[in-house]
DNA sequence: ATGTCAAGGTAGCCTTGA
């Protein structure tokens, strides 16, 4: 069977609902992993996407995080949050906040996680250490599925550009988060666990960037980064027939600052 | 100089986070 899976950091599912519905109708993914819902799970537009044939599992509290999985292939064994997921302890907080940044589900023949990896803010910031700890927890959480025979993938906004080729100006990023050797080592560790980086093709230009800052005309100038990634196990990666970044969805006003990434499989 | 955006609390702007 042919299966189309996609991931999209939508930057508010509420503000982007018309764009989301329009994109679902045109791209017709079987499974869509969303990040940055910026809406509480109770407020997710379940009915609107149901009318297009999707079941939804959402995990969110209404702030800047929140993740979901939409599926036309069923939605089983839903898990909200990673086992042992670390929380972030803000300066003014008493307790660490275990944020809604991961949700897993089985959609027909495929098991997926939709993840929104912490940004890290700045190297030496507590948020950066939190990011690394979070990635190690993710690696441990997916070990079994990564080594399994069932097609499996972790998709989402990793907030890491895997190589210098995935950044519009590597020199400008030296010493900044998203490109440090330590962050890239965390991705390498995922790969050593049996997950491959499924690199999409760009629809235009020669780099498959997935994110362009809203500021300074970054999108028209194609000053982007590839930080929305798909890490699939061997049964998943072997089944991939195509993958592309839908930069058309980044055009115009009222769009997310990220473009959807589409992965086609023949299972 | 961010050629920006969204949410939330609070009060018609400011702060936070990205």
UniProtKB/TrEMBL annotation:
The record marks 159 as: Transition state stabilizer. This is Exodeoxyribonuclease III. Its cofactor is Mg(2+); Mn(2+). It comes from the Bacteria. The active site is at residues 116, 157, 258. Residues 6-258 form the Endonuclease/exonuclease/phosphatase domain. The record marks 228 as: Important for catalytic activity. The record marks 258 as: Interaction with DNA substrate. The lineage of its organism: Bacteria, Bacillati, Actinomycetota, Actinomycetes, Kitasatosporales. One of its GO terms (molecular function) is metal ion binding. Keywords: Hydrolase, Magnesium, Manganese, Metal-binding. Belongs to the DNA repair enzymes AP/ExoA family. Probably binds two magnesium or manganese ions per subunit. GO terms for biological process: DNA repair. It comes from Kitasatospora atroaurantiaca. Mg(2+) binds at residues 9, 36, 157, 159, 257-258. CDD domains: ExoIII-like_AP-endo.
């Amino acid at each position: 069977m042919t299966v189309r899976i996609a991931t999209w950091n939508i930057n508010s599912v509420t503000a982007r609902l018309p764009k989301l519905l329009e994109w679902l109708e045109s791209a017709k993914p079987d499974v869509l992993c969303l990040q940055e819902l910026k809406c509480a799970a109770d407020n997710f537009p379940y009915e609107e996407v149901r009318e297009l044939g999707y079941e939804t599992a959402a995990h969110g509290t209404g702030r800047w995080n929140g993740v979901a999985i939409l599926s036309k292939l069923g939605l089983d064994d839903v898990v909200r949050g990673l086992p042992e997921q670390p929380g972030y302890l803000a300066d003014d907080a008493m307790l660490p906040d275990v944020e809604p940044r991961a949700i897993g589900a089985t959609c027909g023949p495929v098991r997926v996680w939709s993840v929104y990896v912490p940004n890290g803010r700045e190297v030496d910031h507590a948020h950066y250490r939190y990011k690394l700890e979070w990635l190690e927890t993710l690696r441990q959480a997916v070990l079994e599925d990564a080594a399994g025979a069932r097609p499996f993938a972790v998709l989402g906004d990793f907030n890491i550009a895997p190589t210098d080729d995935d950044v519009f100006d590597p020199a400008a990023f030296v010493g900044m988060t998203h490109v440090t050797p330590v962050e890239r080592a965390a991705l390498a560790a995922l790969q050593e666990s049996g997950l491959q980086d499924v690199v999409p093709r760009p629809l235009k230009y020669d780099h498959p960037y997935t994110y362009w800052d809203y500021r300074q005309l970054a999108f028209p100038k194609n000053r982007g980064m590839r930080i929305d990634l798909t890490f699939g196990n061997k049964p998943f990666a072997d089944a991939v027939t195509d993958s592309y970044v839908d930069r058309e969805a980044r055009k115009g006003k009222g769009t997310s600052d990220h473009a959807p990434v589409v992965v086609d499989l023949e299972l």
